[in-house]
Amino acid sequence: MSDVKLENLEVKETALDDLDLPVKLKFGYLSSLVLKIPWKNLYNEPVIATIDGLYLIVVPNKGVVYNEEKAKKNAAEIKQKTLARLEEARKNRRKPPDPTQDTFVEKMVTQVIKNLQVSVSNIHIRFEDKYTNRHRPFVAGVTLEKLDFQTTNENWIPTIHRDIVKIFHKLVLLDNLSVYWNSGSELFSDLHDKAEIRTKLQATIHTGNNPPTVLEPITMQAKLKLNQKPETDGTNWKTPKIDLSVDMKTLALAIGKFQYQDILLFLEAQERFNLATQYLKYRPNLNEFKGHYKEW
């Protein structure tokens, strides 16, 4: 068993800069990440991934600068991927793949998925915007108390498959997934104490006792049956490839007047950003346009 354990990680604020996204990371922290991978016995032992305490704050990115070298590199990568897809399609036309034969990679992925166990808890991803509406800053975010992804038998009892099975049974347990959009709220990104930011993000994870925001906390259970090869299992597709059953207690959605106005303003801002991105290479790297007529 090979274990990877990381604790108390601070995510760099430059983590998203190379992606040229309309947002940038203002604060990032990961309490714990544990990976247990049985490299010597992947066929009989589970792969376990555990994430606890992920807190992120992103803000609008007002400093996207055109980089000619990066733009050329991205364009070249897109062309290479397109050529690779065309070449793969050409090979498949000449010699169609045998659906009954799995590659080594496919077999390995199947074995990993068969006994994969994932546990995610205490997640808070928050977006803070004080530019779109300067008179009324708003915050939006997603919080999650717990998510478990378990391997079970046909009776939905957690187990480990050591033998070959045609149908995987996965049980997904979701506790208190919530989405909020609050107008005129406190901006955590303005705080200077990172420990205080982390404490506030952790304290505002919805546990069912907080008042509903945009999406009231959701608790649900999902049962997934995954048929690996419905085309070759002899049932002539009578057994579906994916059979999903979801049991959700409550689904409540509410949007107030200010939230609706902020959403419209935010969408307009994103539309302007997407339009400006097309002409970014013609725009000088300036924070103000007054007094810089030569550069423009």
From TrEMBL:
Q: Does the keyword Ligase apply?
A: no
Gene Ontology BP terms: protein retention in Golgi apparatus; protein targeting to vacuole
Superkingdom of the source species: Eukaryota
From the UniProt record, list the coiled-coil ranges. none
For the Chorein N-terminal domain, which residue ranges apply?
3-296
Q: InterPro entries attached here?
A: VPS13 (IPR026847), VPS13_N (IPR026854)
- Which terms are listed as keywords in the entry? Transport
Family, according to the entry, reads as follows: Belongs to the VPS13 family.
**PANTHER family recorded:** INTERMEMBRANE LIPID TRANSFER PROTEIN VPS13, VACUOLAR PROTEIN SORTING-ASSOCIATED PROTEIN VPS13
Name the UniProt record assigns to this protein: Chorein N-terminal domain-containing protein
Q: Report the source organism.
A: Strongylus vulgaris (Blood worm)
